[in-house]
Structure to design on (151 residues):
């Protein structure tokens, strides 16, 4: 496992940097994907999907800053150039396809959160990070429930 030192001037603690990178990447991808879905949805049920996708965007985006700040406080320095988003433009504006698109990103994000939490949960140093990861997992579960009601 690749690790980054938690304090630059000591060797006391290490941050699992591969997981930290994956967490930020999937979180950022979800923010971008949900915003794209919000802007692109069309159809007879436009307004309900527009609001749903906005809720997903707001829920995900409000936690990005907290995640970055906590990881940086623990010694992880992200390579922000790597966060270009989920790739490509949306090719659809159909609500059901956008729901599938976001569900895919939510599943990837949740899996990353769970892997990261499982990696650091036993280390008391990461108690704050574990709490944040579990809060993000709860948000993700609620958003997946909302999306699943559209299937």
């Amino acid at each position: 496992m690749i690790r980054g030192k938690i304090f630059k001037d000591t060797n006391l603690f290490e941050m699992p940097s591969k997981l930290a990178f994956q967490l930020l990447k999937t979180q950022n991808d979800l923010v971008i994907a949900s915003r794209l879905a919000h802007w692109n949805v069309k159809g007879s049920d436009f307004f309900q999907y527009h609001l749903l996708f906005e809720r997903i965007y707001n829920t995900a985006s409000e936690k990005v800053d907290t995640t970055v700040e906590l990881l940086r406080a623990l010694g992880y320095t992200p390579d922000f150039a790597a966060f270009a988003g989920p790739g490509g433009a949306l090719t659809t504006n159909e609500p059901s396809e956008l729901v599938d698109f976001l569900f895919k990103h939510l599943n990837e994000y949740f899996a990353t959160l769970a892997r990261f939490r499982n990696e650091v949960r036993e280390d008391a140093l990461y108690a704050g990070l574990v709490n944040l990861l579990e809060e993000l997992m709860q948000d993700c579960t609620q958003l997946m429930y909302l999306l699943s009601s559209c299937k």
About this structure: The first strand starts at residue 4 and ends at 5. The chain has a mean pLDDT of 84. Helices lie at 17-40, 46-73, 95-120, 127-148. The domain at 4-79+99-148 is CATH 1.20.1260.10 (Ferritin).
